[in-house]
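Quick look at the format.
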Amino acid sequence: MARFISLEEAKQLKLDKRYCTKYVLSRDVIRQLIDFILENFKIVRNQNGGILFSYHSIYFDTSDYKMNKDHIEKKMHRQKIRVREYESGDKFLEIKDKNNHLTTKKRTQINSYDIHDNTNWVSKNLLYDTKDLTKKLDVFYYRITLISNNNLIRMTLDLNLRYFNYSNNKIYYFDDTIIEIKRESTEKTFIDEKLESIDILPQHFS
């Protein structure tokens, strides 16, 4: 039986510094895991009482895609920068910093999608050339957020993902579900072990 918690309750598990693991699951695998998930997690309700949160993110990079290259080359210290609009309509300029597998997120609330309106904040927090940043991807999806019963793990399920690529002006659709497991420890969680037991292995993508 599904159990629910409010968004305010879920915010108590901040995890601004965290270790993350991502998986890609088909709809069939999700169906197999439903009972296990409902037994071990609480579902976060949005402000309207539903469970789907809409997300819109614009990702930026340098003209030579330095951030993406650093990710592909698996540099120990790398970043990505985006503007994200949340379900509430609030917009934040966010920088995710990954250093030796530890992910830290910094953000500041903004009014527009133009990051150049916040040059000082970006320059202070970004490793890359701020003058060279342009839009690369426009991403839309719905998210279900779950909190483990012991309140130590946040798990998100991203659905119906579509994105616009500014380099070729094309829209792409992604049918599978992206699961991300976020926790304070480097150790595997019980959900990681469950996924690996059915031959679902972590995926390394940004």
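Next, a different chain entirely:
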Amino acid sequence: MTEKRIYKRENMKDTKSEHRDQNQNIIFGRNPVIEALKSGRAVEKVLVSSSDGSARQIIAMAKEKGIPIVKTERQALDRIGGGASHQGVAAYVSAYAYAQMDDILAKAQSAGEEPFVIILDGLEDPHNLGAIIRTANLAGAHGVIIPKRRAVGLTGTVAKVSAGAVNYTPVVRVTNMARTIDELKERGMWFVCGDMDGELMYRQNL
């Protein structure tokens, strides 16, 4: 597989809109990113402007862990870093740790309740994710599931908008949402899907 297939291109305009969440933690420099990957820290995605030297190692490590790799321009990293020495590499890390699926199931079991989980796919706005986590907590959900790719993660903005609910609502990040749903079905869980063109909830006979 060539490096072109390992990561996608991202132009400066896309990068600018992608990184507006200033509260999200970013690590700059090749060695710091390598150590973050080695330590098992929750890394949202890795940005690289080249694939020379140790950057190849970073790409390989991120690929092995299923972490999205984004090919970007060096000028974009200059702008994001605000003068930081990035050596052509940066990594977005989570502001909060992710939970495991067993954590959600254990929370439901300890409460003597059937698992109640909110599943979100393709949600990119941190404000929306924070608001949903807050609502999930108020509704008594035992956790929230989000995908690793093409979706916002647990950023500082998400935590702020959640009004602290992120500390009490486990959030699990999965690689394959369809497979996760199938696995939960095997555990006896039922699913109700929301549709923007569907009937309003309070009109439904639940």
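The CA atoms of residues 124 and 151 lie 5 Å apart.

See the schema section for token definitions.
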